Amino acid sequence: MKKVILYILFLITICFILPAIFTNTTKQTASTESIPQENTDLNKNETSQTPVASEGKYSKIKLLHTKTGEVEEVDLESYLCNVVSAEMPVTFEKEALKAQAMVARTYTIYKVNNKKHENSDICDSSSCCQAWISKEDRFARWEEDKREENWKKITEAVNETRGKVITYNSSPINAFFHSNSGGKTEMPINVWGGGGYPYLQVVETSGEDAYTQYASEVSYTQEELLNKLKEKYADIQIDFSNNEDIKITEYTESERAKTVKFGNHNLSGVETRTILGLKSANFEITKQDNKIIFKVKGYGHGVGMSQTGADSLARQGQNAEQIVHHFYINVDIQDVNTL
């Protein structure tokens, strides 16, 4: 009888106690497996506000700070966050910022391979290379409650395009860009002369007229205009009563002023823009009483990617790579470490 009772107790142990033990073990195992996943997600959120470090041949660049003359070795992707935040408004669409990141990265690598400065790869001046601003100075110019959010948007644009460069025949292009094309970009030969750059053609972009950079106006009295031109051409003479003495005589393919007649001198549209302080060589000339008025479209030299054009295309639903292919003809997008 005792043997029967012990046998029954043994069966109860097997049927009820052991399943409970295994069930508890299974729950504990599932719980510990979920922790690494939570940590991974947390790390993603943290790194989205920090540039991912570069690797390979172009991981570091030498940056010349023009105000101090100091040359600093910086991580490429970190440098690009400072460039993008200096070159494009953070209020622009993220896909436009990503396009700017690719363009800035490409422009940087082009400068590394085609050095302009003796002891550095690139400088922080927009008039020479491309703009750069420190994170501290950038934060100081943003509203306090927007700083972290803005910086996260910039770093995400850089991180999400990490290593991507624009190439033509497997070489990084000279990725020119500007503020607003006035609706059409320009060919470099009409700005700087020379040739080459088959990937930089005239392209049209809709929506640029919605930006403040699209239209501007500069007016001079007859005396002011003459004095301004005499700073460069002392012998210049203009008969203001003759409408043929001030006019655009030739246009470029993008409808910018190519040649402008000022009395006894013919100036290029680009030179006219420089002398008279116009935002673009895309202008028309009108006369009103004693004033000569220059009505200008666009802002910048007009070559390569228009930044407001990029934002307009992003608002129309195009992604960063589509924006790049819109402004640069027959190019590829490659990883920098494959070059």
Helix content: 40-55%
What is the general shape?
elongated
Rg, Å, rounded: 30 Å
Distance between the termini: 86 Å
Uncertain segments are 1-47
Structural class comes to: alpha+beta
Q: Average pLDDT value?
A: 87
Strands side by side in the biggest sheet: 2-1-3
**SS element count, helices:** 10
Beta-strand content: 15-25%
Could you give a short account of the major beta sheet? 3 strands, mixed
Order of helices and strands: HEEHHEHHEEEHEHEEEHEEEHHE
The total strand number stands at: 14
Give a written overview of the molecule.
Helix 3 packs across helix 10. The chain starts with a helix and ends with a strand. Strand 1 and strand 2 form a beta hairpin. The radius of gyration is 30 Å and the shape is elongated. Among the domains are: 151 residues, no CATH class; 83 residues, no CATH class. The strands form five sheets. The chain has a three-stranded mixed sheet with strand order 2-1-3. Strands 5-4-14 form a three-stranded antiparallel sheet. It has a three-stranded antiparallel sheet with strand order 7-12-11. It is an alpha+beta fold and 339 residues long. The N terminus is likely disordered.
